[in-house]
Design a protein that fits this description.
The complex is a heterotrimer of chains A (315), B (455) and C (298).
Chain A: H1 18-60, H2 74-81, H3 83-116, H4 119-134, H5 137-148, H6 154-161, H7 173-201, H8 205-213, H9 218-246, H10 250-255, H11 267-277, H12 281-289, H13 291-314
Chain B: H1 5-29, E1 42-49, H2 54-71, E2 73-80, H3 86-97, E3 103-107, H4 110-113, H5 122-132, H6 137-143, E4 144-145, E5 148-149, E6 152-160, E7 163-166, H7 167-174, H8 178-181, H9 190-193, H10 197-209, H11 222-234, H12 251-265, H13 278-284, E8 290-292, H14 296-304, H15 306-309, E9 312-314, E10 319-320, E11 323-335, H16 342-352, H17 355-364, H18 381-384, E12 403-406, H19 414-422, H20 425-434, H21 439-453
Parallel strand pairs in B: 1-2, 11-12
Antiparallel strand pairs in B: 3-11, 4-5, 6-11, 7-8, 7-9, 10-11
Helix pairs in contact in B: 2-17, 7-10, 10-12, 11-20, 12-20, 13-14, 20-21
Chain C: H1 2-53, H2 57-62, H3 76-82, H4 85-118, H5 124-133, H6 139-152, H7 160-183, H8 187-195, H9 200-211, H10 213-229, H11 232-237, H12 246-254, E1 255-256, E2 259-260, H13 262-296
Antiparallel strand pairs in C: 1-2
Helix pairs in contact in C: 1-13, 3-13, 4-7, 4-10, 4-12, 5-7, 7-10, 7-13, 10-13, 12-13
The chains are: A mainly alpha (315), B alpha+beta (455), C mainly alpha (298).
Chain lengths: 315, 455, 298
């Protein structure tokens, strides 16, 4: 697992005799040098294009609007007092958490359904269900937007056929929130499905057989065999998706641009509006930085859980 | 060209090395007449607004090419779209990276946002205004920083956003004869004096009853903001005054909100989610009697729904207690202070803003582009374009309209105004009325919001 | 006694088997129906994209009859795009950028995963955890400070900047899959090779890469998906049509001011989705297999 629990060979190969110890150490040293060199491109990439700009963003967030004076944490304090920003925090959490829970849930169901059907038929179904994940998000969101459009809404046409009134899809706060979440779920569920399907396939068949012999029902198998075996993959997928969803820009930007009345703004779109459109780059940077502690908190707990479980399995 | 000397001193040193050879080559190949100042040589990269009429780009390219050939300057032209705020992102990118084009097209507030990085351009502005007369107060407000012009108002992309209505619908449903009110010929009409916000409301109500509501957005994009801005200004309602004091708790704001409370009831249910294209679509799909939009709505209708287009008429904004104000959204051309070839950039800007090229471009885009100088508001294109002929005759402000150009949030200090504008404070106030909040609640909300802008 | 008992037992077993069989069959059909419902819901937007792409502007704005049907199908939108030089450029740029990004990402993540799963060095454990955490710093936070870096290396409005930036989106996940995959390879294999005197790169090249091929394909597909669909970075850093990639190019070229050419936008959307759909169609099994081994073990 990516949490660093894999044990490098060096650790389990202590020198067997005193005479070989020297060469072993040299060997280990050479190995770690090579190991470091192999990681160097990764380190440079991350350092140059993620870590350094991240620190620069922190620096930016501590400047005043004209970027002429250092104001420390002033921007953060200022933001926290603004009602609009409190709304943005609430909405970001609502958007990300609801979307991730739905994606995880539907993805889980889909993976099970998929697992139920014979392998040779799976391919076509998998293919069809992966389509949303495959279309570039910015473009598929445009389609959604077009289907929600007030004058041309294809959904409203269907509603009208059933004698129902038009729904102002993106015009009323809660409906618009629902729409942004729907699009995100539509886009992200296939990824969960594929990850879970992969996990399901790796659960050894013997475990189920053993459970059957013990007289376990379907639900019991699910709770006592499948879920524990999948816990790590669920945790990692949820974490990954949580991060990506929290940082989402495309969907909200294209669908509602934060409206109506700021009721769909999330961190990224609000940062864009404040930082780029209104020319207040330091404040925009502060808005985006608010994501970090929230996500770091989630990541800490998820990864700690994963590490613990991996250790339990290992020992 | 003498006034330019002081500001040019810095660049000449850098330029000579690069341009000397080219200059020599140029002077050998061409008669000396073409090397006018000797300064306008070298390389230039210009960013223009990507016109929604593709041939608008072509004519611009042609004019630039002609200038480039004449002045022996290698000009790279990029057209940058405003879709998805791409142009603003590019401006931000260049400002942060301190590299990029020599000249940028700055929409509305971006001159103020980037004033520290722009080269003062008073010399060009002086020669242009000497020749063509003054520009309007909005340009002054947006591009003059501490008494200096930081960018030149241009025609490319600049637009008015007055009403464009369906002739037949307004006549039948609301008894409003817009063609006789604003005929396609010079001269004041008595009917136009009666075109007030109250008359606008009465017509909106009648059309809404007939299932053809006025498609006025209450979203946060520019169309919504501009219409709301014109309404607020007509009632003299300032959210923040020119000294930066929050003045939202005033009788005038209350008065405009009282009008707004009536108006929002007769707007479409999804008005709050409108973006800049929603009103177009409402008009083109035949579901609306009137939109506040420049001739693009009409032009698209002409392509997609010709029957609707033939029934469209553009006219001036309604008036309120404080006068008649027409939404105006100018673009500016500015030269970055980090540009390596400021002189040439300025010369090209000046050349492109002469009457003939401005008119040629304006004609190509069916009159969409509004020239910055009042003296140029008499191009023939606005008389000719149709059907119906004369539909955009009253699109530019005519002297007999008694109207003034306005941008929402003026006269607040620009760094506050930009936020009022971009966060759509005014239409959001109206949207809150629509969702059933009381005037007091809306004012309290706006007050809180505005405190956050005065950072 | 024993015979009858056996017979009974057999009968019961057969009955249970039969009911089990029936149960299975029900479950199977249930699964198909449920999947069908999901597929229907998932495919509504793509279907609408297809329908709209076959309509002319006039038909779209006319709004007569169902918007879900085409009354006068036309391929004009597709034809326009295919012969439109800008669109061809975007396509080519997207393909080029994606190929380069996938190559760069895979080289970086395979090397790093090999090192992190097999060779300990100071900080390697922190690194293997930390790599995944780079996702905590999303593009929406980075694009403003990156203006300066990209400007400093002179890559503003140059699609090569995407070749540098996209890997930051793909590499952490790819590395994670690859670490998982490499860890599942028995240590005896490379120990034996080491004793035979093979170098590390030889081990990687001869043993790890062939064995981990499904994982590599899965990671490649992920990198491909990410770099084909990314939106914010090209939106921020590219602005001329000769450098533009598909996602942003389509939006900035086919939406003019407040005029949307929906038929063409939808056709472009389909054309842009074609390469990923083809790739998934052919490599789907590897993708699932790769993830199965890589993501779940480890």
């Amino acid at each position: 697992m990516a949490d660093g629990t894999s044990i490098p060979i060096g650790a389990i190969a202590p020198g067997k005799t005193a005479g070989r110890r020297g060469t072993m150490r040299k060997f280990a040293q050479r190995r770690s040098t090579i190991g470091f060199l192999l990681c160097l491109p990764l380190i440079l990439l991350i350092a140059g294009f993620v870590i350094y700009p991240a620190f620069y963003a922190i620096y930016l967030s501590m400047l005043n609007k004209k970027m002429t004076a250092f104001v420390g944490l002033g921007n953060f304090a200022f933001l926290l007092q603004r009602h609009t920003f409190q709304l943005v925090i609430f909405q970001s959490c609502l958007f990300a958490i609801t979307a991730v829970v739905l994606k995880a849930f539907i993805g889980f169901i889909l993976a099970h359904l998929m697992h139920n059907i014979p392998g040779k038929n799976q391919r076509i179904w998998r293919g069809l269900l992966l389509v949303p994940w495959v279309i570039p998000l910015a473009l598929s969101t445009l389609t959604w937007w077009w289907m929600f459009d007030p004058s041309y809404s294809a959904f409203n046409w269907v509603l009208n056929q059933f004698g129902l009134a038009n729904v102002p899809w993106l015009g009323v706060g809660w409906i618009a929130r629902f729409c942004t979440i729907t699009v995100n779920v539509w886009f992200g569920t296939p990824f969960f499905m594929i990850m879970y399907l992969a996990a399901l396939k790796s659960v050894p068949e013997q475990l189920y057989e053993a459970a059957s012999i013990d007289g376990a029902g379907t639900m019991q198998k699910l709770f006592f065999v499948t879920l524990p075996m999948m816990r790590n993959i669920i945790a990692i997928t949820v974490l990954f998706s949580l991060i990506v969803t929290f940082a989402d820009f495309d969907i909200v930007r294209i669908l509602t641009a934060g409206g109506p009345q700021d009721m769909t703004h999330v961190f990224a779109t609000y940062a864009f509006q404040v930082g780029i459109q209104s020319g207040d780059i330091p404040l925009g940077a502060s808005v985006s930085l608010f994501m970090f502690p929230i996500l770091a908190f989630a990541a800490f707990f998820v990864l700690r859980g994963v590490t613990q479980r991996t250790k339990e399995i290992a020992t | 060209m003498t006034t330019a000397k002081t500001t040019n001193r810095k660049t000449t040193g850098k330029m000579t090395r690069r341009s000397a050879l080219k200059l020599a080559a140029a002077s050998a190949a061409l008669p000396l007449v073409h090397i006018r100042s000797g300064r306008a040589a070298g390389k230039l990269s210009m960013a223009f607004w990507d016109h929604w009429v593709p041939s608008g780009n072509a004519v611009m390219q042609k004019q630039v090419d002609a200038w480039a050939a004449k002045n022996q300057v290698e000009v790279q032209v990029d057209f940058i779209t405003s879709v998805g705020q791409k142009n603003i992102l590019t401006i931000a990118a260049e400002a942060q990276a301190k590299t990029g084009h020599d000249m940028q097209a700055f929409p509305t507030w971006e001159v103020q946002n980037n004033a520290e990085l722009l080269e003062p351009i008073d010399d060009v502005m002086k020669r242009l205004t000497d020749k063509y007369g003054p520009v309007n107060a909005v340009c002054d407000y947006l591009a003059k920083v501490k008494g200096h012009w930081m960018a030149v108002p241009t025609s490319s992309g600049t637009q008015y956003k007055g009403p464009c209505g369906r002739i037949s619908v307004l006549k039948e449903k609301a008894g409003l004869d817009v063609v006789s009110m604003y005929p396609a010929k010079p001269g004041h009409t008595a009917a136009s004096d009666a075109w007030t916000w109250d008359a606008h409301y009465t017509a909106a109500e009648a059309c809404a009853k007939a299932g053809m509501p006025f498609a006025i957005g209450l979203g946060q994009t520019t169309d919504s903001v501009d219409t709301a801005g014109a309404l607020f200004r007509a009632y003299g309602a300032e959210l923040v005054d020119k000294d930066g004091n929050i003045t939202v708790k005033s009788d005038k704001v209350r008065a405009v909100l009282e009008h707004g409370q009536k108006l929002v009831k007769v707007l479409p249910a999804d008005a709050v989610s409108y973006d800049d294209a929603s009103n177009n679509r409402a008009l083109i799909s035949g579901q609306s009697a009137l939109v506040w939009n420049p001739p693009s709505a009409w032009a698209v209708a002409k392509r997609d729904a010709p029957k609707v287009a033939e029934d469209c008429w553009t006219f001036s904004a309604p008036s309120g207690p404080e006068g008649r104000f027409l939404p105006y959204l100018p673009y500016f051309w500015g030269v970055w202070s980090f540009s390596k070839n400021k002189t040439a950039a300025k010369e090209l800007i000046e050349a492109l803003l002469q009457r003939e090229p401005v008119e040629a471009r304006c004609t190509e885009v069916l009159g969409y582009d509004v020239p910055p100088f009042d003296s140029m508001l008499d191009f023939k294109v606005w008389e000719d374009v149709g059907p119906p002929k004369g539909t955009v005759y009253n699109y530019p402000i005519r002297p007999f309209h008694n109207a003034k150009a306005h941008i929402a949030a003026l006269p607040a200090p620009p760094d506050i105004a930009v936020q009022i504008y971009n966060r759509g404070t005014m239409p959001t106030m109206l949207a809150k009325l629509k969702s059933g909040q009381s005037i007091d609640q809306v004012i309290a909300w706006a007050n809180d919001e505005l405190e956050g802008f005065a950072r | 006694m024993s015979a009858s008992a056996t017979a009974r037992r057999v009968a019961v077993a057969a009955e249970r088997k039969h009911s089990l069989h029936r149960q299975r069959l029900w479950a199977l059909w249930g699964s198909y129906i449920a999947l069908g419902v999901f597929v229907f819901m998932f495919l509504v937007p793509p279907f609408y994209t297809l329908i709209t792409s076959l309509k002319s502007s006039a038909e779209i704005s006319a709004q007569t009859g169902s918007p879900w049907l085409v009354h006068h199908p036309t391929l004009d939108n597709f034809w326009y795009l295919i012969t439109y030089p800008n669109f061809q450029t975007y396509y080519l740029n997207s393909v080029l950028v994606t190929i380069l990004v996938v190559a760069v990402s895979m080289v970086i993540s395979v090397l790093a995963a090999f090192s992190l799963s097999r060779m300990g060095f100071w900080g390697s454990q922190t690194l293997s955890t930390g790599v995944f955490l780079t996702y905590l710093i999303p593009p929406s936070l980075l694009f403003i400070p990156l203006f300066q870096i990209i400007g400093a290396i002179g890559l503003i409005n140059n699609f090569w900047c995407l070749v540098l930036l996209y890997p930051t989106l793909a590499v952490p996940f790819c590395t994670w899959i690859m670490i998982g995959y490499f860890s599942s390879i028995p240590k005896e294999l490379d120990e034996a090779a080491l004793i035979d005197g093979a170098g590390y790169l030889q081990i990687l090249w001869r043993i790890f890469i062939p064995v981990a091929m499904p994982g590599i394909i899965a990671a490649t597909i992920f990198a491909f998906t990410v770099s084909w669909g990314a939106f914010l970075y090209p939106l921020a850093y590219l602005y001329t049509s000769n450098q533009m990639v598909l996602t942003v190019g389509i939006i900035s070229d086919l939406i003019r001011g407040d005029v949307f050419q929906w038929g063409k936008i939808m056709a472009a959307c389909l054309l842009a989705s074609l390469p990923p759909i083809v790739i998934y169609a052919f490599l789907m099994d590897y993708y699932v297999a790769g993830l199965t081994a890589g993501a779940t073990k480890g």
